[in-house]
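User: Can you predict the 3D structure for this chain?
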Amino acid sequence: MKPFTEDEMVPLCVQPGFPGAPSRTVWHSPCTPRENLLSAIQAKECSFLPNVLDMRGINPAFLSDNRARGTVMDGGDPFVPDPHGERDAFGVEWIYDPEINGSMVRPGAPLLEDIEDWEEAIAFPDPMLWDWAGQAEASRTYLADPLYARKSTIFTGFFERLISFMDFEEAAIAMVDEDAQEHVHALFDRLTELYLTYLECFKEHFDIDILEVHDDWGSQTAPLLSEGTLRETVLPYLTRLVSRAHDLGVAVEFHSCGKIECLVPLMVEAGVDMWMGQDVNDKKAVVDAWGDKLIVEVEVPELGEEASDEEVWQAAQAFADDFIIPGKPVALSIYSAARANRPLLTDALYELSRKKLCGTAGGA
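Assistant: Here is the predicted structure, written as structure tokens:
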């Protein structure tokens, strides 16, 4: 690995941060953020600390899940969700809340009352009717920047999708009811076929590097379902999707909220490459146990914009001591990218991680 030199601490460009969060400097590093992230994923080696901002989302508006979830990113005009609701690809209505930057299903009108009736009640979309080639052409300039990896997202996965069809209580019952199991499997098998089509189209037309899959498994205090239930109902289909992604040279980032650190072994078993989870989890313990198999997206503290240089460097050093471990790369999470901090924090983390990962004695 190329040794760190002060010459690389010259800004290549400045990448805007999320609203309320600082921008990020991209330095004249030995490799691009994209190359660094993909090396971390594929070889568990990187030259500096990866960041979720190393990925550029390509979530086209014609896939109505992206409109419903308020996550359209395709290089076109900024998308503003209808405050009265947007329907996803299955016709489920979602209400976007700008305060949380997220959407929830409008309750009380589930598409599906009984899991046994899913084939009659649910109309699956046909992705081959959508203008993938036209969107690829329209997004050409947006996707042209070689600095960043390309990522597309599947909203939503398996358990979350079942919740969107049935509302939470009935979905949870269906997941554990032995009489419902064959119907849950049949529905998840059909969903997997759809998601495989999405994946293949994302790869063919946008040449993505990373597929993000959403499927929340936990509450703020514990998993919503047991490991055994998830192993029986979700794991076979998630594994199948991840396997096909890997066949296509695409890594998988798994977005799953809640306190689910005990379920990380299932993610590893499925072959997931990155986990985007909340900071209610003991991520240091997860990295120590599984960091050679899975990239954990971790958080920095929110110091505020008034923090002193000394406070920022101390926080960066503490993070480096805990999480910059050769052979067990982590990435700064989306939650870190949204926190109010001085730009100096990510600058310091870049320098400290470069020095530690290339074996140069470093520090502030």
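The chain has 15 helices and twelve strands. Residues 162 and 168 are 8 Å apart (CA to CA).
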